[in-house]
Design brief:
Order of helices and strands of chain A: HHHHHHHHHH
Number of helices of chain A: 10
Helix content of chain A: over 70%
Oligomer: homotetramer
DNA sequence: AATGAATGAGTCTTCATTCAT
DNA sequence: GATGAATGAAGACTCATTCAT
């Protein structure tokens, strides 16, 4: 099976990453088993190691791919306009990724929320572009006075992404009862801008 | 003698659970090592098995104990006054518990975020009184018009507790850089009432 | 099986080292299999790891033990007198160790002669006391004029030990035909002092 | 075309064997990696298997080739004169071969020292002409009284070749520090005729 | 004939669990 | 009840070998 084309190699890699996303979402980094991943992708155990040097590295690739997909969708769906509208679009893009790639997002969110010393650096490294994109929108918001300027933009970005993540967790924890995926973008933006409890929030939403 | 023996047994059990909390907080369920827990509690490896049938069971006991300890955290301080002030007091009480029981809380938050089928119900059960207390305050807030009335109170309670948890995670993930524990109560309340991004929030804070 | 006495622990360790010597003598460091060693010593696979951190470390212990046994025998059998006589006694002691501990000596000689980058340092480190003992005798020989003084003593020691090793190899390679173990001490000393070919050697021997 | 093809095939085989010699010299049979050998020879992994059925077989071919190359080494230079001078010339010829074929010689010496049942006969067979040549010189030495006559000439030949090998090993083990290749012929002859320790040796050298 | 992706047997190593003392 | 040595299942990772292209 030699002389495989570069594209075929890429396809196999992709399949392994997707199988990895399923395993890692289900079992976490420590609990995931390499040979399950390989089998799930349709290959024998050893094949994973033709593409990734170690379980850690495969995990990193899964995280990276997850972040890349989310970020890509992000970029596409920037309607311009108010910061609020743009962040809402971003959240919608994120949710639409979640619908299609739930495993990837689960890995991202779960491991990010678990901040294990061995996985958090990986997550952080690969999440950077994603946070960067959000931060870009927020920076413009600060510039035009739509966003408070007394808090560092990176912190704000973390808070926005955290809000989204938290809503996902609540969605999963309630087995989809509340919030539903449909509600999440609006909830995230409202919460982020107006808080969860205030009337203003209620009114504006 | 049976009496003393029983008490002694309880003390040993407690020590094992505390050592377990430390390990599980650091390494997670899969990564934790029985041997380290036992040694850390001052016993030899085998002793754990005189008290718990398996690592899983010890883990369950840690989660349960953590939930039990955390559950008490709320009753303590209710200064009365505005909803805002009362929730802030609640958050402060929560943080003060966190200071003392950081390992337990870490395990709890992690597990909550992973909603494993075998531990999530435990967490949920023990979280209930806490959520109930928060909900009580919020309900009064709704009644007096300080809190929006178009969202179910239980959802609001979940969002408040979620905000706190998210801030904890960010605290841990940043190695305490931001937010610091001191900042968390104010941040939580502001975020919950006014959002993270708005000027109103900045002004009021 | 707890509370084993220190002596029992030592005995088990010894058994593992001896089984290790057998395996390493037969298969070398790379080829040796941990579970064969453990089984051969009468234990399950994992037991080796209760005594040694890794295969390398067990190998080091085997080499050390081999060198220790050989060196010990060396020290006991120093009759004093001429350097020639003392080295002969040393060689005889060495051969008597070889008779009883052939596996250990085989490991030592084979790996020393293979100077593999990963094993040679281990061998060198553990062989040091052995070489040191020989060097001590030779240094006295230099002092009293029985040994040439224009060559560094450590080189001479290496040459003597090398001579012995070479004879062992020839013994093994010929399946014991020549030289026999009985002949080795005399051969080694003669060769070392008088050469292999000269008449002087023939006469004196 | 068949002709060229056959020659080409021979060339590729040769390159693989030389690359094999490098790997085996460095890592031994067990430690050598097919993949490294093939790459080093300028081919992809699988190519080795178009020429050799297995790693073992390639190893055998390397040993055989090494022995073949080394076998020619002696015929070259026989200056006549004293036995001593002729053996010295032989040793010099040997060292000059070593300089060019170091990897092969390393593999050979190692294997000779390990006398594995499957390779030792090969080595022995190819060593025979070399030993025979040395034995021829020695026999003349015995005849003219320059070499002791109370030891079988084949044994003497083995001892001479063994001396050389031992010096090689010490050269390699010391990373070339001592003895240097330049010193080896003189050392070998001196040691062989006069011993390593005696004054006579020192004086005559 | 060369290629190199896929394979899977083989090994080290870890560590929860057991149990004799 | 405490101990810690022994156990062996489990799992990551290696790499010789195969074989489709």
């Amino acid at each position: 099976m030699a002389r495989i084309s570069k594209e075929l190699r890429e396809i196999v890699r992709e399949r392994l990453i997707e199988a990895g996303a399923r395993q890692f979402a289900e079992a976490g980094l420590a609990g995931a088993r390499i040979d399950v991943i390989s089998r799930d992708a349709g290959f024998a155990k050893g094949t994973v190691y033709n593409y990734f040097a170690s379980k850690q590295e495969l995990f990193g690739a899964v995280v990276e791919e997850g972040a890349r997909r989310a970020a890509g969708r992000f970029a596409q769906a920037d309607p311009g306009g108010s910061v609020r509208a743009r962040l809402r679009a971003a959240a919608e893009a994120d949710v639409s990724v979640l619908r299609e790639q739930e495993d990837f997002i689960k890995v991202l969110v779960r491991e990010a929320m678990s901040f294990r010393p061995d996985t958090y650096p990986i997550i952080e490294a690969h999440l950077a572009p994603y946070l960067f994109a959000v931060a870009g929108v927020l920076a413009e918001g600060v510039a035009c006075g739509d966003v408070r300027d007394d808090r560092p933009v990176p912190q704000l970005a973390l808070m926005f992404v955290g809000t989204l993540s938290l809503l996902y967790v609540q969605h999963w924890a309630s087995n989809g009862a509340w919030p539903t995926l449909d509600e999440i973008p609006e909830l995230a933006v409202t919460w982020f801008f107006d808080g969860a409890a205030s009337h203003a929030a209620g009114e504006r939403a």
